[in-house]
From TrEMBL:
Taxonomic source organism: Cochleicola gelatinilyticus
Gene3D superfamilies: 2,3-Dihydroxybiphenyl 1,2-Dioxygenase, domain 1
Protein name: Bleomycin resistance protein
PROSITE patterns per the UniProt record, alphabetical: VOC
Domain VOC: 2-113
InterPro entries reported for this sequence: Glyas_Bleomycin-R_OHBP_Dase, Glyas_Fos-R_dOase_dom, VOC_core
Organism superkingdom: Bacteria
Length: 124
């Protein structure tokens, strides 16, 4: 089994397209006003946005985008006007991550885990 795609809810798909393009995703399907799909720059995974009437905190999604250099990526995105909730932080689970939210409240993590994503020292 392989993860194909993740879909997040959005009240305004067109506004979300602009946000996720700034993050570096490549738009491949634009079916406004209800749907858009992107390719991730690395690998074969796709990411999509689906229009909803409202997004509550319990419906929001957490999405992790892995990059080689978190600090560098955060600086790049900040220069494009993206605001972060936290700057890069080394976590106890051996990941470096920075948090931000899209305009619908979905939690976005820009992070780097390297080998620790699938093979942490405490792996079973």
């Amino acid at each position: 089994m392989n993860l194909n795609q993740v879909t997040v809810p959005s009240i305004d798909v067109e506004k979300s397209i602009l946000f996720y393009k700034k993050l570096g995703l490549q738009l491949i399907v634009k079916s406004l006003p209800k749907y858009a799909r992107f390719e991730c720059p690395n690998g074969n995974t796709t990411f999509s946005i689906h229009q909803v009437v409202s997004v509550t905190e319990s419906q929001s999604v957490w999405v992790y985008f892995e990059v080689e250099n978190v600090s560098e990526k955060v600086s790049e995105l900040q220069s494009k006007g993206i605001t972060f909730e936290t700057t890069p932080v080394e976590q106890s689970w051996l990941w470096i991550e920075a948090k931000l939210k899209d305009h619908d409240g979905n939690q976005i993590m820009i992070y780097h885990a390297g080998k620790n994503r699938k093979n942490p020292p405490w792996r079973i």
